[in-house]
Design a protein that fits this description.
With 429 residues, the chain is an alpha/beta fold. It is 57% helix and 7% strand. It folds into two domains: 199 residues, Serine Threonine Protein Phosphatase 5, Tetratricopeptide repeat, CATH 1.25.40.10; 189 residues, Rossmann fold, CATH 3.40.50.
Length: 429
């Protein structure tokens, strides 16, 4: 493609993104504007478009930072960035991290780091944005630079996380030892204890050369993953997949000797799922009534983002409460991690979603799912699948969050460390 053709294509993409904003299609505009800006970091029009978008989304403070950056880029080319421009890039990059636009933040912060390679704050924020993208090896370099001049708790903690995620065990242990003196607040001490547990889980599995998503979910959070081989990008769950997931859950509960007395649901969309699961387990179901139910309960979320509600109610981990999330987002941090996860998925559409909205009956769908789940219980291949899962988790029982409240009184926060790219970065052992 010639330079003239490339320029014409870029202009077309920019105009298309602007039209999406004019039409009020904010999500589509966000995707288009982000893609354009990443391809053209020096184009002030991209920055100004993003400023308009953030203003429309109610992020006026960020919009002002973006406007100032756009004006500075217009006056001073990015490749000749000086102090004022890099200051504005840093402030904008830092603000973009707050709205989880880590790719854009990393793009701006990498420019800042080239101009000021020894600045610890820039190196820390760049390391954080890269870590949030799952680029742990690269993030490590910037955290190491930052720690040379700023050995505080957060920098040391994130460096220990990156070492753990890239299986550099000795370096991770060294950072955790340093954290013992740096941890002063209760939250810091809890995080230190959590990271020590993570490292113990990794050490127990060092004979594996590559960790799967199931391994990482267990290592990082002590959680069970029922469907580790789910196809990426599949978000529509039909009766067969729902039946398989719930039959797996029932089989794993039986194999791990977990008794459930009631299935509670938090989300309206979870009500049909809770009723189906309750029927399979031969227990009752009800809506969530607060943190102090006397029964042994299973809180069911059709979609893990529902946990973001009154999450303090879910933080305590004891024998009375068990969290099951049918689908867990891979990129979205959550305030609490479930004991059991059906599968990783970005979005979840259940066959009754529209019916729940309209108040229609879901009885026929539920009957189909229960019928399929019961049929699976006599399938030899499915029985083998349950046995494999039970054997995997039973030998790791002491580090599971499930029914282990005396060891893990509070659930760890799910910070979305299980990235798609994580296994690509793990060296063979």
């Amino acid at each position: 493609m010639s330079q003239e053709e490339a320029s014409s294509s870029n202009l077309h993409a920019l105009v298309a993104a602007q039209k999406l904003l004019d039409d009020g299609k904010l999500d589509e505009c966000l995707a288009a504007a982000k893609a354009y800006w990443l391809r053209n970091p020096e184009d002030s029009r991209a920055v100004m478009l993003f400023a308009r978008l953030m203003d429309e989304a109610g992020r006026s403070d960020l919009a002002l930072k973006l406007e100032r950056l756009a004006n500075s880029i217009s006056a001073e080319p990015v490749e000749k960035a000086e102090s004022k421009l890099t200051t504005e890039m840093f402030e904008t990059g830092h603000a973009l991290i707050d709205v989880r636009q880590n790719e854009l933040a990393a793009m701006l912060l990498e420019i800042c780091a080239k101009v000021h390679p020894g600045e610890p704050v820039i190196n820390y924020e760049l390391g954080f944005s890269l870590m949030s993208l799952g680029r742990y090896h690269k993030a490590t370099r910037y955290f190491e630079r930052a720690r040379e001049k700023q050995g505080d708790f957060d920098t040391t903690l994130n460096l220990s996380v990156c070492y753990s995620l890239t299986r550099r065990i000795d370096e991770a242990k060294e950072m955790l030892k340093l954290l013992e003196d740096l941890a002063q607040e209760d939250d810091e001490k809890k995080e230190l204890a959590h990271r020590k547990t993570v490292l113990k889980r990794i050490e127990r599995m060092q004979n594996k050369s590559v960790f799967t998503y199931r391994d990482w979910l267990y290592i990082l959070y002590g959680s069970i993953l029922l469907r580790p081989q789910i196809e990426k990008g599949k978000t529509v769950e039909g009766p067969q997949k729902i039946a398989m997931t719930l039959a797996l859950l029932k089989g794993v509960f039986q194999g791990l000797r977990v008794d459930v007395e009631i299935v509670e649901y938090y989300s309206t969309y979870s009500r049909p799922l809770a009723k189906i699961l309750a029927d399979l387990l031969s227990v009752s179901s009800d809506s969530y009534k607060g943190p102090n139910r006397p029964e042994r309960t299973l809180l069911v979320m059709s979609w893990a983002a529902d946990i973001i509600g009154p999450h303090r109610s879910f933080m305590e981990n004891n024998y009375q409460r068990l969290l099951f999330a049918y689908g867990l987002p891979m990129q979205e941090p959550l305030p609490v991690t479930p004991d059991v996860v059906g599968a990783f998925m970005e979005e979840l559409f259940m066959p009754w979603s529209e019916n729940v909205q309209k108040g229609s009956s879901t009885d026929s769908i539920a009957e189909t799912i229960i019928e399929k789940a019961l049929a699976l219980e006599s399938d030899p291949d499915f029985i083998n699948q349950i046995e494999e899962a039970v054997n995997y988790y039973d030998e790791r029982r002491e580090f599971l969050v499930l029914s282990n409240g005396s060891v893990f009184p509070e659930r760890p926060e799910y910070s979305a460390e299980v990235h798609e790219s994580i296994n690509l970065e793990i060296p063979s052992v």
